[in-house]
Amino acid sequence: MDFRVARFERKGGRQVFVGFPSGGYFLGQNGMLYRGDIISNTTDRRKKDFHIVDFFSGRCDENKQKIYAHDVVYSSTLKTSGIVLFRPEKGAFIFCVQHGKITIPYSFLDMYEVSLKKKYSIFEKNVLTSNPNRLL
Q1: Is pTM beyond 0.70 here?
Q2: CA-CA distances (angstroms) from residue 120 to 33, 35, 41, 81, 134?
Q3: How would residue 72 be classed by pLDDT, with cut points 50, 70 and 90?
Q4: Which of 18, 49, 56, 116 has the highest CB neighbour number within 10 Å of its CB?
Q5: pLDDT at residue 127, rounded to an integer
Q6: How many C-beta atoms surround the C-beta of residue 102 within 10 A?
């Protein structure tokens, strides 16, 4: 299973995106994120370090870059930008178009052939508010 980890540090009263660490993380059979023998925090935002796991969607963009959950991509066929989200209740990665605070599911990435070009991660551009789960 391919994934990347977004790392946040608490600064003042909020979590600030630090980056995507290059490695050393693994998912245990219990679904917990580990770095070595230490369990990484993925649930409690009040703690100093916080991590979000982004799973690989199984698709690459036009430039052969891997597309993960929470990536903003541009569809040349649809002529619009959107966010790739993983919906656990559907068990699928979905290309969603955001209009204000409303997220509209547009197409299932594993079902339809949509040409995508990766722009950036929502964490990198501070598109994300203090609650990343509002997009889920």
Answers
A1: yes
A2: 24, 25, 24, 11, 19
A3: very high
A4: 116
A5: 46
A6: 8
Measured distance CA(45)–CA(86) in Å, rounded: 21
Nearest-angstrom CA–CA distance, 71 and 40: 22
CB-based contact 66:56 (threshold 8 Å): yes
Q: Are 84 and 109 in contact (CB under 8 A)?
A: yes
Q: Which of 65, 98, 59, 61 is nearest to 81 (CA)?
A: 98
The string over 61-98, giving b where at least 16 C-beta atoms fall within 10 Å of a residue's C-beta and e elsewhere, is beeeeebbbbbbbbbeeeeeebbbbbeeeeebbbbbbe
Amino acid in position 29: Q
The tens digit of pLDDT for each residue in 11-23 reads: 888 888 989 988 8
